[in-house]
Design a protein that fits this description.
This protein is about 35% helix and about 20% strand. By secondary structure, the chain is of the alpha+beta class.
Length: about 240
């Protein structure tokens, strides 16, 4: 496969979409109702940790919808591009629901406290459709201050939620198709874990920095802004605790 074709398919198995497929896709998108997908209201970005290999991590783009005040559901993609691979799912529930679960079930869930307080979890700022009308430095129609405020409000909600995440496609090891059984994932819970973690053999710090640059984000600024977010008590029965 040529480099151009590989870019179009995001490196997955198979050939790029034919003209016929693209035409059919366009037609279907004009007449069908994608209500569940249209309900997605937030894009979150962070890094997930393999529960059975706690030093192995992968970037995760969450596209989440709220089905109640206590439950959110997220599709997890490897990138935010149109050719992104759907690599997993995450459910997020309130602390009250989490504490109602049996101990055996709670072990499958993780907290988001460290992700939020450290600045790792971000809500990427949307890019402008017409760059000529906006700041060249940000490429966005929304002022930074307003977006940071909205993101901080979102983090105030997320910090107390528990997540249950499974990945089906281990793209970080080069799989061209989803192979094997789903794997349980967790979240980062400490600076020590960050220092020891690897993303495709590279340090988490390095990849995290590149992520910030790509999205025009500043982890340090977010960490400062989130100092006022109250840190909830984390239940010791959660799955990935290091």
């Amino acid at each position: 496969m040529s480099n151009a074709a590989e870019q179009e398919t995001n490196g997955v198995a198979g050939t790029p979409l034919s003209t016929k497929s693209k035409v059919l896709e366009t037609g279907a998108s004009m007449v069908q109702d994608f209500a569940p997908v249209k309900a997605i209201c937030a894009h979150l970005n962070a890094f997930h940790v393999y529960a059975d290999e706690p030093h192995r991590c992968v970037e995760a783009n969450h596209y989440c919808s709220h089905i109640s005040e206590d439950i959110r559901q997220c599709l997890i993609y490897d990138t935010p591009s149109p050719s992104a691979r759907l690599i997993g799912i995450e459910y997020m529930i309130s602390a009250s629901l989490f504490h109602s679960l049996p101990e055996s079930e709670r072990k499958l869930w993780h907290s988001h406290v460290f992700e939020v307080k450290s600045g790792m979890l971000i809500m990427p700022k949307p890019q402008a459709l017409t760059p000529s009308t906006v700041s060249l430095s940000t490429g966005s129609l929304i002022p930074n201050a307003a977006w940071e405020e909205a993101e901080t409000k979102e983090m105030e909600d997320v910090v107390s939620l528990y997540g249950k995440t499974y990945h089906f496609w281990q793209v970080d090891r080069g799989d061209k198709v989803p192979l094997g059984e789903p794997v349980l994932m967790g979240s980062f819970t400490s600076e020590k874990q960050v220092e020891e973690g690897k993303v495709e053999g590279r340090s988490v710090r390095e990849v995290w920095g590149e992520r910030d640059e790509r999205f025009g984000a500043s982890t340090q600024q977010k960490k400062e802004k989130r100092k006022g977010i109250e840190e909830p008590e984390v239940h010791t029965g959660e799955s990935v605790v290091f």
